[in-house]
Structure formats: C-alpha cells, structure tokens
Amino acid sequence: MPIIACFTEEISQANGNFVMYRAKEEIYDADFKMEHRNHKLLQTRFSFGGATFNPAGVRITDQCIECGVCKEACSFNA
Q1: Could you read off the pLDDT of 33-66 as tens digits, one per residue?
Q2: Which range marks the domain in which residue 12 is found?
Q3: Of 17, 18, 30, 54, most Cβ neighbours within 10 A?
C-alpha cells in the first residue's frame, strides 16, 4: 500500500471540514522484494492550487560518461 506524505502550504478549517487549498505531496510505493517491478521504490510527486514541487531523484546530465559508479552504489537498484 502506498504511503502518502503531504506538505501543505495553505490549510483552512471550514465548517469543521479539513480543506487544503494549496499543497505539494509525495506518494511512495515500496516493493523491497522487487516482486512487481525491477526497482524497490516508486516515488511520485505532485502539487495543486498553484504550489510547486522539486522533481525527485538524481538527474542524469550530458556530463554523464556512463561509468556505472552510480548504478553500482544505488541501494534501490535503479
């Protein structure tokens, strides 16, 4: 079952209801035995209400020489 982490920027209490106007959130789906995919963690970030979020993970740039060091060191088998 995915874990949802919510980082709110603006919350309001209206008539006893919890209302989020603007937030950025992450959904984590762990598969540590890698039974359903070839990596351990699936992370999805999203936002609403005009909030922004930083993309998850490491970005491979044009400076990569494909030496494989980062792949060997990755504990999530990415």
Answers
A1: 888 888 888 888 888 888 888 776 667 788 888 8
A2: 3-73
A3: 30
